[in-house]
Design brief:
By secondary structure, the protein is an all-alpha fold. Helices cover 44% and strands 0% of the residues. The two termini are 30 Å apart.
């Protein structure tokens, strides 16, 4: 059985979909366009909202899912401290 954090990460990876698919709100093209326009990609934000990602940035005592702030500052696996 995988840790809950891995399950969440895998669900997010599946939801983000194939970045080469032009219909995907997280596609390379959609992200490049939003970056060039300095805009917020509404379709991508909607997917993140549907997954409940914003709740992971709000402390539990305020109705979110963030048990402690240290959880947000730990670099993801594969990221060297010098890259943060």
């Amino acid at each position: 059985m995988l840790p809950r954090s891995f399950e969440i990460a895998m669900a997010l990876d599946r939801a983000l979909g194939d970045p080469a698919d032009a219909a995907n709100p997280f596609s390379y093209a959609a992200c490049a366009t939003a970056d060039a326009d300095a805009s917020i990609p509404a379709g991508a934000c909607m997917v993140l909202d549907e997954l409940g990602v914003p709740q992971h940035h709000v402390p539990v005592e305020h109705g979110g899912r963030l048990p402690h702030y240290e959880q947000q500052v730990v670099p993801p696996a594969g990221i060297e401290p010098t890259q943060v």
